[in-house]
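Comment thread on ticket #2218

A.B. wrote:
> Attaching the input chain for the structure job we discussed in standup.
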Amino acid sequence: MNDLIPPALAQTIQATHADGAAWLARFPAQLAIWQTEWQLVLDAPFPNLSYNYVAPGTRATSQAAIKQAIVLKAGPVSPEFHSESAALRCYAGRGAVRLLAADPEQGALLLERISPGAPLIHQTDDRVATAIAAQVMQTLWEASPTPPSTGPTVESQHPAKADHFPTIADWGAGLEKIRPWFGGNTGPLPARLVDKARRIFDELLASMATPVLLHGDLHHENILWGENILWGAADGHVQPPHLAKPHLAKPQPGQWFAIDPKGVWGEPAYEPGAWLRNPMAMPERWENPAAQLARRLDQFRDLLGLDRQRMAAWGFAQAVLSAWWSIEDSPTAKHTISHTALHAPTQPPATPYMHDWDHALAVATWLDPLVD
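C.D. wrote:
> Ran it. Output below, let me know if you need it in another format.
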């Protein structure tokens, strides 16, 4: 173990990656290599890290007096690492943070840092926040490469390979693991909801629109406001020439950027699902869940021209899948949760749900009446 990785993050890395302990052991030496090769000066890592080491810092530029603000994201190499890296290359700074460099062998992404980097979670008007999310979705889809099934592969158009990206069908197949995991039943997940989610995946995949490269996890914490800056100019910073004008009128310069894309092929109607079930751990944002979800669906329909029923159905199925993923990713979940089916209340509790799967299951229950 090393002192550079917070203990909670180290525990998660070891629990979720077969090579987690080995990666942690070589991390100090590897970090020094990245700092030298990429000419980095790093600050302390961000607090409350979940699955990766993430630290802000600066990078040297061709002008000795000017430094570029960066973020280093590192973790054990996984399919998710490759799909995130490939997605960022495809987006190329359009609607998402720009990937500056990557180490695909050791597991590191060097990203431009957005300043001030205020997450959209700070916008308490849900109508405004949902409109911004729709805008970011549209920008990312416009930057999508042609899906390999309908034209030239990603590899022929971008410095990324088509097989770096899973499909939403691949994700939906995860629902097939639930019953084997729980010895033939569905554990804390109501069997009716699990079966309905599986049926929805089958039906919607069979009638899916032309896929685009989706972010796959576009929620309030994964959209930031700001600009990438270079430190050291006479006025404190200068704006990079590639930065586009802001999409929305704001008193300070900048625009909205997505971070942490999963990178997955799917139809656009799938994308709002992550937004529908967020924010988590904030019951004060869910005063009237049914009405809020219905209004969000209306907004996405009006702003993006998406089919409301398909979005609701995808949102329901994803919420069930998200609940399962939360259980699957928890090292102790199988031994600590009740195998009695949970029933989400009409209203959220006064305090946050104990586990992410409780919240996701609640959202599935709230969306259930909106799905035929």
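A.B. wrote:
> Thanks. Noting for the ticket: Residues 175 and 321 are 6 Å apart (CA to CA).
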